[in-house]
Write a structure and sequence with these properties.
Layout lengths: L6 E5 L8 E2 L3 E3 L6 E6 L10 E7 L3 E6 L8 H11 L3 E6 L5 E12 L9 E8 L4 E3 L6
Antiparallel strand pairs: 1-2, 1-7, 3-6, 4-5, 6-9, 7-8, 8-9, 8-10
Length: about 140
């Protein structure tokens, strides 16, 4: 499956009924967590023993086309959410219908530019919940 068609939506409250898709999405991060491997070896062990601790989702950075022409621009919407410093609810949806839902705080950074380069901005997310995976049901 190609990444083409992936969408990212948000809602400001958990109780809101639907997500608002964000336009201009160009790149999505890996999703999931890498649990920290914790050494739990005792002095009588012949080999090192480890177990998994809590997970780290790593950097959750979404790249967008920069466009700031009016109040409905994705950049302005996300900038307002970042400025509010509140928890926001996100849903990344794959073309096959698989959904990844999570809460996060966000920050924005406008990228640099040069000759023949498009200006982008990056939405960086600080995860505030587990990532829930919702499998697709039926035909799409």
């Amino acid at each position: 499956m190609l990444a083409n068609g992936i969408t990212l939506g948000y809602k400001e409250t958990d109780s809101a009924s639907s997500y608002t898709d964000l336009s201009g999405l160009k790149e999505v991060p890996e999703l999931g967590v890498d649990p920290e491997k914790v050494d739990n070896t005792v002095l009588t062990d012949k080999v090192k023993n480890s177990e998994y601790g809590i997970g780290d989702p790593g950097d959750m950075a979404y790249k967008f086309k920069y466009e700031n022409t009016d109040e409905s621009s994705t950049y302005r919407k996300l900038r307002a959410l970042a400025d509010s410093n509140k928890k926001v609810y996100f849903e990344e949806k794959f073309p096959d219908g698989t959904k990844f839902q999570f809460a996060a705080q966000c920050s924005l950074k406008v990228g640099g530019g040069g000759v023949n380069t498009a200006i982008e901005f990056t939405l960086n997310l600080a995860l505030q919940s587990d990532i829930t995976v919702v499998d697709p049901t039926g035909a799409i």
